[in-house]
Amino acid sequence: MENGELLEGDLKKNLLKLSFPTMIGYFLQYVYDIIDMMWVGRISSSAVAGITIFSTIFLLVTVLNEIIGTSSISLISQSYGMGNKKKTQKIVEQTLTFKALVAFIAAGIMIISLKPLLSYFTKDDIVIKAALDFGYIRIFFLPITFSSYSVNTALRCLGDSKTPMYIMIVGAVTNIILDPFLMFKTVPGTSIPGLNMGVFGAAVATVISTSIAFLLGFYILLKGKKKLKISVKGLFKLDWNIDKKLLAIGIPSGLQIFSRNFAGVLALKFASLYGTDAVAAMGIGAKLLNFCFMPVSGIAISSSTIIGQCLGGECVEKAEETVKFSVKFNLIMMILVSVVAIIFPENIMKLFISDKNVIEIGILMIRIIIPSLIFGGISMGISSAFSGSGYNIPYLISSFISRWLVQVPMLFIVTNLLQLPIIFLWISFMVTDISEMLIIILLYKNGKWKTKRV
Fold first, then answer.
1. What pLDDT digit, counting tens, does each position of 70-129 carry?
2. What distance separates the 2 farthest-apart alpha carbons in the chain?
3. Distance from C-alpha of 198 to C-alpha of 183, rounded to nearest angstrom
4. 3-state SS assignment for residue 186
5. What is the Cα–Cα distance from 113 to 432, expressed in whole angstroms?
6. Mean pLDDT value across the chain
7. What does the record list as coiled-coil region(s) (predicted)?
8. How far separated are the first and last CA of the chain, in Å rounded?
């Protein structure tokens, strides 16, 4: 879609046209995540627990990616909506360069602190070894990981969601093919010899596929094949005026994500009180949540793009219409997903692992945390107004209250004071999502996002 086309004609059709390629791309990426966890589950529950702990810690670092990424959505989409392609080009170049620089710094800090952080969650040497085997190479390739998100974000903000879809398909398929070959001595179900690298092989498959996806997207932006052409020269200098905006606009959203992720770290710590099986179940639950949330993610990203362009073109009513449709779509999709989760929890768990204890814990978990996505879907639909406008303070307020004034105290009371069964740990996630949704609704209705421009 060319500049302004997203704002013409039937807005719902434009949103779906922009969203479906994003959903397909995310769908395959999350399918990879699911398959990856299935392969790891063939090794042991300790391997699953190790990757779960590392992934939870890793989320704290990805906050930096989200700060710059969230800012870039509003900056790119609004400048493009205004018809200023030169400014759009410069913002894309700065997003890539600045994010890579931040990733180098973050990777250095994480390499030093990873092992001490792992010992906070477990003293099991097997679990710690699995986490380190999986983690170190992921950290080393952090700049590539961050940059791969940016090339896709830039293309979507220009109204092109098909190219990122193709890029994500290539990355996901590459990962799916490489996983069993790198992880096992013999590819399961065949006589094809593998490299028997275990969980390290899973990490290698991830960084290879991510690097390929980044190079494809970077080449497209560099050659100007899709509406915008970046320059190599522009990548080798920082523009502090733009970089300040990339930080300032995204900091509220980044703090919100940090608040959410750090609360997730504590939730994992509380889950570890119930044993390694509980940690493994929680890791599987995290993969399922990401997979089930795929339609919501696709709509949210596309809604933010359209809202940014609407506000850049001073079309506030169309922005409101986009939010309403996004909420309705998310609600329907999450209700359908929840019905499946409630009816078939045991079958879903058996896809990942054969350990009966983990499966038993997971059945309760699935029946509670998956339906809570209904409330999360409503929140995401409304929140697209904030990311599109660049008014991200509501993210911070809602996350702080729901996580730190609701979930964390509840988890402490449940596990340490009352020592209740693990089902109450899962219930805390649903209570958190409900409280966050209510706060998001209130902050949306005050209307400040309508007047925000970046």
1. 778 778 877 877 777 888 888 888 888 888 888 898 899 888 888 888 888 888 889 899
2. 62
3. 4
4. strand
5. 29
6. 83
7. none
8. 23
pLDDT at position 1:
43
Cβ-based neighbours of 122, under 8 Å, separated by 6 or more = 49, 53, 128, 272, 276, 279
Looking at the DSSP bridge assignments, the partners of residue 226 are 228
* Residue 348, helix vs strand vs coil: helix
Q: What local confidence, expressed as pLDDT, does residue 409 receive?
A: 93
**What does the DSSP assignment read for 29-82?**
HHHHHHHHHHHHHHH-HHHHHHHHHHHHHHHHHHHHHHHHHHHHHHHHHHHHHT
CA–CA separation, 118 and 393 (whole Å)? 32
Higher pLDDT, 74 or 406: 406
pLDDT in tens, 343-365: 998 988 888 888 888 899 889 89
pLDDT for 2 equals 44
Under 8 Å between Cβ of 282 and 108: no
d(CA 387, CA 394): 10
Q: What is the dihedral angle through the alpha carbons of 380, 386, 392, 393, rounded to the nearest 10 degrees?
A: -90
Backbone angles phi, psi at 186, to 5 degrees: -135, 135
Q: How many alpha carbons fall within 13 Å on the CB side of residue 366?
A: 27
Sign of the C-alpha dihedral computed for residues 78, 81, 83 and 88 taken in this order: positive
Q: Give the C-alpha separation, 193 to 186, whole Å.
A: 4
**224: its two tokens:** 């100007």
Structure tokens at 443: 């902050």
Rounded Cα–Cα distance for residues 107 and 64 (Å): 11
* 238 token code pair: 């920082």
Cα–Cα distance for residue pair 78/75, rounded to 1 Å: 5
Which pLDDT score, from 0 to 100, does residue 3 have?
43
Question: Phi first, then psi: what are they for 435, rounded to 5°?
Answer: -65, -40
Q: Which letter does DSSP use for residue 360 in this model?
A: H
**Residue 22's CB: how many other CB atoms inside 10 A?**
25
